């Protein structure tokens, strides 16, 4: 970079599993990783040269650990905060129509932005081809069949990753002979990651996140929604996070939205109980089923 | 004349270009590409027995890496120790057109100790090399030679060792003097061995495979599945670290092992012999005597791993273990055997292939040394053959668990080797049985007591929890039981170390918001702690039979006292499925405010036809669905 005329400095840091760097006195073995800090105009970008799937200016989660020390050739060294503006964001849009054979058929579109897109690209690249990735997804999905798929922007790292699936979901529950549907058939959170009653350390999520599910279901004339999804709106103190669901019935169709926003990258131990409770509510909502039935 | 030279030169250079271009990626047969991360283009493996203490192992291999996932397959690692010498390694890297882009030799390899962080001492080292190439596809062509100073063990040939790999051509040649006899065991080898004599008058055995497609991973696959190709070779006459021997069957191999490696290692100091006699003088039943001695050994010693040279097969002297109080599996079995001998109890030193995921037996029809990796003890009491693993300080006498159960082992006795079979834990034996009594209140809080017993191989299920301090036990149980806001007020464990041992767990718990209460309705999971969520993945066109390694039984009986004045708004759970490989029954009854839930899941080990697989997927899907049953109670009008 420097030989190309772009001012660049080295940043020494400690990865997450290596602990936090001590800022009171210098110790070389506090550090175990190095990234580049590129200065362009009054902006700077941190770059990790080890992973070809990271987009420009993005650091992997294991590097996002408190502070790093910048070393340049012509200035004394100084600290920088590794709390980067990067985000993880995903949106899933489902547009499904109920068929008379108890199958919900339609499309599922997943949009992955920022770090979420990076994680998904890593997951897809574990397979030789996108086809094999989808083959595995199909083989491990319960009651869901993937009929067709398309994955866009797999190699365009600056653009959101877009997956479009044509799917069929079998919603007939043979245990109680009802039509019950849970839209969280992929990536459901079913146990709370926060188990302690109280916590003395902060929770460092690394970055803010934004996850949304937007569902539209079209029902044939002779069907109704017997048990609709619950509507929730809870927020954490100091705009730390929010969990909202909404339900909009219409003639022969409805929409349901489920939004989880975690607006801080680090939560203090005082905020821990609220974070835990937010997850509790998310889990309750994600396990609930909506029930459809034939009009009598 | 000149034109002839020019033509020759042209032909020569053309020939060379061709020689390189043979590894052009476009020349890989199309059927070898699906699911492949790497393709072995050509492999020539040669084992050349020059003498009883001089074996040359030569490998020449060309492998094309198609994408990043194939890097690990091309990663070269050569293991060596004091008796295995690396003679040379060299190689080149080619681009996708088969043109050379780099060259490497032994100095480019990293030399590392293979110390596993687990063994106390070992002398094995590894040299490894990861090609620094980022343009895919690329091809690595390399060649190396190792020299072994023993002829007891030869490397197996398995040309297709992993998934995501295909093979264009692979050849294995074994060469030896006319008077060196071998036995070999082929598994799924498609062609026939070709035997002959080479120009130096040496005997040769050659195996070859061509165009092997990638193996697709299929869950529940037998250990020796249809795709697993291998050739094992055993010598008739051999030397091992200077110790000569010969065998053609298990009887002779066991005899050699006992006579040469074990028999002379069992002498104990007189005081120890007297002490053991004294310890057991009031016990008449030999099994109880043996139990006493085993427990004495457990208290006195601890397990360490030592893997070096002949020590890989030969135990420490019993007197050293007696003095130092530690040993590896061989040393502790040998020591226990010596202690038992002091009170005239016969026992056998047994070689076993240990492992939890598969029960691997010694091959009945093919004796060879490297089929086992662990030593256990057998006590051949009349009509009551008893087994013991001597490496644990805590397991009960006579208990093997899932590490060495139900498999054929080699007992090395003074009369020679004999194959024996370790006891099997049946689906009924491996029991996890739970009874709980809970109260659920209108706010959604669940509280009550839960008692679980673990038997058979499940006896060890709480191994990592039992010996932890109380606060750590609680954290681990919060991970084990999927109940949100689980608050464990009390937990205790009892372990009954009988011949049929039992672990009992008693818990008093409470969980707020276990149920969701809204609009006069209460919802909660009927199955509170043992919900299955995974279904084996669907497989199209399955090739392998279905193999269930170990059977088990789960029983739950859970009583809930629910708030009075509610009824169920949906059909009560009542589900039964019965298949040759398993049974599942889940039922509930609601009588006033008493809700009773019963669940019984039994899976029976065995090998079933490949067509059974879809039934197995459907079976587990039904279990998952029934385990996800949500009780939905509504206030009576």
Q: What can you see in these coordinates?
A:
The complex is a heterodimer of chains A (296) and B (637). With 296 residues, chain A is mainly beta. Chain A folds into two domains: 2-81, no CATH class; 87-294, Jelly Rolls, CATH 2.60.120.1130. Chain A is 13% helix and 42% strand. The longest helix of chain A has 16 residues, at 272-287. The mean pLDDT of chain A is 93. Chain B has three domains: 38-240, Immunoglobulin-like; 260-421, C8orf32 fold (Roll); 431-635, Jelly Rolls (Sandwich), CATH 2.60.120.1130. In chain B, strands 5-4-9-2-1-10-13-12 form an eight-stranded mixed sheet. In chain B, helix 6 crosses helix 7. Residues 1-19 of chain B have low confidence and may be disordered. The chains are: A mainly beta (296), B alpha+beta (637).
Sheet with the most strands: spatial strand order of chain A: 8-9-7-6-13-17-16-15
Q: How many beta-strand elements of chain B?
A: 38
CATH class of the largest domain in chain B: Mainly Beta
Structural class of chain B: alpha+beta
| Largest interface (C-beta under 8 Å) | A-B, 30 and 37 residues
The overall average pLDDT of chain B, rounded, is: 91
Principal-axis shape of chain B: globular
Condensed summary:
The complex is a heterodimer of chains A (296) and B (637). Chain A is mainly β and 296 residues long.
